[in-house]
Amino acid sequence: MKYRTEYDNKGYLVIRQFFSSAEILAVVEKVDRIYQQWLIENESDAVEYQLINMHSLTKSAYFEGMPGERISFFKAIAQKSLTSLIKNIFGEGLYFHNSQLFFNPYQGSRLPYWHRDIQYNPISEEIQKNELGNMLSLHVRVPLIAETGVELVPGTHSRWDTKLEKNVRMELNGHKNSEELPGAELIQLEAGDILIFSANMLHRGNYILNKTRKALDLCVGKQHPLTSKCLDLSVLPTDEEMLIIGNNEWYELARGIATTK
To answer: 214 exposed, middle or buried (CB, 10 Å; 0-12, 13-18, 19+)?
Structure first.
């Protein structure tokens, strides 16, 4: 399949106009309400620490008194067209890990920073390097408004850093993780497009080119000890909710992992 070949070569792929305007609008309405609740509860931290994202949008705390809304949100972010696409590209065994919403930092004063998600796992760099090719950890970005908001270094999903990349990413030898990197590609997306990329490739957000940002990331992957141990059962549907969510394979696999880890 062309999509898998493209991903294998670059570590990411873009699919244009995957979602309709109506599908995006339905997600926007739910996400906006959740974000506003989070912002009220976390405004001081958002300002002080220049936060750029929130996570766990499916937690029941955001749906108190609205059980039907939580089920509707689970359905919206794992609709059949999307789960079938991801399965066709990456095969069986995919599970839903979490969700994130990305936005601009307060007053836009935080600099974008290069990273690999795997670096936040408390393990040695040698283990990170050795496990890079054994992990499938994806971000499925669903921009809710147009953005030029993600920068990627193609191919770094399957190779480790060059000397310069390591110095920049880890801020070694006088370098800063906000520096430009050679070969980086800035991705432009419209609402309705999706970007699928490896969470463990070199990437960073972009805050300068976007007056506002509102991008929903679905974290999806295959079971691996380094990521599965972090799976939080509270972001997954309950037994009762699972009975109502028809297309629930992502969640069923996730619940199995979360209850046996």
So the answer is: buried
pLDDT tens by residue, 138-169: 999 999 999 998 999 999 999 999 999 999 99
Instruction: From 181, 189, 254, select the one nearest 216 (Cα to Cα).
Output: 189
Q: Centre a 10 Å sphere on the Cβ of residue 229 and count the other Cβ atoms it contains.
A: 11
Closest CA to 95 of 137, 60, 67, 54: 137
With contact defined as beta carbons under 8 Å apart, do 114 and 169 qualify? yes
AA identity, residue 214: K
Q: Which of 82, 32, 90 is nearest to 57 (CA)?
A: 32
Q: What is the separation of C-alpha 152 from the centre of its chain, rounded to a whole number of angstroms? A: 14
Residue bearing tokens 């990273």: 115
The rounded distance, in Å, linking the Cα atoms of 17 and 235 is 28
Q: Which residues of 52-74 are buried (b: 16+ CB within 10 A; e: fewer)?
A: bebebbbbeebbeeeeebbbbbb
pTM above 0.70, yes or no: yes
Distance CA 82, CA 179 (A): 35
Closest C-alpha among 78, 44, 3, 30 to residue 214: 30
pLDDT of residue 250: 98
Tell me the torsion sign for CA atoms 212, 189, 57, 158: negative
**Residue 161 has what DSSP assignment?**
-
**Below-70 pLDDT ranges, the chain:** 108, 261
Q: Which two tokens stand for residue 115?
A: 């990273």
Residues 6+ apart with CB under 8 A from 173: 167
